[in-house]
Amino acid sequence: MAQIFRTTVRSFATTSSRQNAIKTVTVIGGGLMGSGIAQVAATTGHQVVMVDQTDDILGKSKASIQKSLQRVVKKKFAEDPKGGEQFVSDILGRITTQTDSNAAVANSDLVIEAIVENIDVKKKLFSSLDKAAPQHTIFTSNTSSLPIGDIAVSTQRQDRFGGLHFFNPVPMMKLLEVVRIPATSDETFNKLSDFGKAMKKTTVDCKDTPGFIVNRLLVPYTIEAMRMVERGDASFKDVDTAMKLGAGYPMGPFELSDYVGLDTMKFILDGWAEKYPENPLFQPSALLNKYVAEGKLGAKSGEGFYNYKKK
Ligand SMILES: CCCCCCC[C@H](O)CC(=O)SCCNC(=O)CCNC(=O)[C@H](O)C(C)(C)COP(=O)([O-])OP(=O)([O-])OC[C@H]1O[C@@H](n2cnc3c(N)ncnc32)[C@H](O)[C@@H]1OP(=O)([O-])[O-]
Ligand SMILES: NC(=O)c1ccc[n+]([C@@H]2O[C@H](COP(=O)([O-])OP(=O)(O)OC[C@H]3O[C@@H](n4cnc5c(N)ncnc54)[C@H](O)[C@@H]3O)[C@@H](O)[C@H]2O)c1
């Protein structure tokens, strides 16, 4: 019995010290995903530095975090407005902002990159961070579709490199895909999984395959919905209604595409079509291309398949 207790305590201590391994987090990119990741990391007690290109963008990122926290507070502190105020100010107090990414990683245990979905821009960033960050700092990308291994080659720390793929909206979505490349060490992978759990996410282990688990299924499904409309088989509104009421999805594929951003969808699909030309599931969609060419990028631009402009 004592032996079992000691073993349990020891394994708890191992997990617990691993969970404590990541205290300071640098989130690079304060857009849709970066601001959500920064919010949740700070909510779960981590010190966060959020980086973007200008103070103006960072001001907007902080405002969107504040707005999201107000939605949380409305429910969690309905009977305790003072407690709610304290909750928000404690979380915001753990987030600082920076426009210099090299300076931002100086004391960082973990970097989570959430900038534009462009391999060259991501590689340039990591190559520079590799020289600026301490040896122990783990690097991760939140990329939706690029191979983590192709980004990691820009650094000399591939054993301390992995993927942390969050879902939109980060404060609400419970899943985190933890991605390893062949060079990722077990120690790094365990620390990333423990960090995900410390962020109160359910983690799944993924290999560095196109789209990991979720997007490998979600992208072909969504594009097939677009092809269905291109063929004139159904209207996009009927497809959305059908998938919500017939398959139990919270959003139909067109609502979800608008929510994610049609430009992001196009970045993903074009990248895969170029890298895997033999795969019929990854071929471009004329309908998607038409919307993006017209500047209809979804909710963020005010119009996509649906109209979001206030009347
Ligand atoms: C097409 C895909 C192709 C691939 C693209 C790749 C993209 C990427 O790599 C992977 C993804 O992320 S894939 C995408 C994966 N994502 C999906 O699949 C998402 C699917 N959609 C959903 O799960 C639900 O529709 C939502 C949870 C978004 C909204 O819930 P709802 O019930 O439909 O509508 P509601 O009434 O508005 O909200 C209800 C309550 O939720 C709360 N709340 C919401 N947002 C919040 C925030 N930002 N902060 C804080 N709180 C937030 C709030 O409490 C609110 O109450 P309030 O009183 O109004 O404040
Ligand atoms: N949108 C989604 O639903 C979603 C979900 C999961 C993963 N992702 C991935 O997350 C990443 C970010 O997506 P997003 O939707 O948040 O994009 P976004 O356009 O909302 O935000 C990107 C931010 O990065 C900033 N940025 C660009 N280059 C930079 C640099 N060199 N240094 C610092 N900041 C820089 C931009 O100013 C912008 O604020 C992408 O790789 C995307 O594929 C997106």
TrEMBL record:
Residues 24-209 form the 3-hydroxyacyl-CoA dehydrogenase NAD binding domain. GO terms for cellular component: mitochondrial matrix. It is found in: Mitochondrion matrix. Pathway: Lipid metabolism; fatty acid beta-oxidation. One of its GO terms (biological process) is fatty acid beta-oxidation. Its EC number is 1.1.1.35. Residues 211-308 form the 3-hydroxyacyl-CoA dehydrogenase C-terminal domain. SUPFAM superfamilies: 6-phosphogluconate dehydrogenase C-terminal domain-like, NAD(P)-binding Rossmann-fold domains. The record marks 165 as: Important for catalytic activity. It catalyses: (3S)-hydroxyhexadecanoyl-CoA + NAD(+) = 3-oxohexadecanoyl-CoA + NADH + H(+); a (3S)-3-hydroxyacyl-CoA + NAD(+) = a 3-oxoacyl-CoA + NADH + H(+); (3S)-hydroxydecanoyl-CoA + NAD(+) = 3-oxodecanoyl-CoA + NADH + H(+); (3S)-3-hydroxybutanoyl-CoA + NAD(+) = acetoacetyl-CoA + NADH + H(+). CoA binds at residues 68, 75, 144. Keywords: Acetylation, Differentiation, Fatty acid metabolism, Hydroxylation, Lipid metabolism, Mitochondrion, NAD, Oxidoreductase, Spermatogenesis, Transit peptide. GO terms for molecular function: (3S)-3-hydroxyacyl-CoA dehydrogenase (NAD+) activity; NAD+ binding. NAD(+) binds at residues 29-34, 52, 117, 122, 144, 168, 300. Belongs to the 3-hydroxyacyl-CoA dehydrogenase family. Mitochondrial fatty acid beta-oxidation enzyme that catalyzes the third step of the beta-oxidation cycle for medium and short-chain 3-hydroxy fatty acyl-CoAs (C4 to C10). Plays a role in the control of insulin secretion by inhibiting the activation of glutamate dehydrogenase 1 (GLUD1), an enzyme that has an important role in regulating amino acid-induced insulin secretion. Plays a role in the maintenance of normal spermatogenesis through the reduction of fatty acid accumulation in the testes. Homodimer. Interacts with GLUD1; this interaction inhibits the activation of glutamate dehydrogenase 1 (GLUD1). This is Hydroxyacyl-coenzyme A dehydrogenase, mitochondrial. It comes from Mytilus edulis (Blue mussel). The lineage of its organism: Eukaryota, Metazoa, Spiralia, Lophotrochozoa, Mollusca.
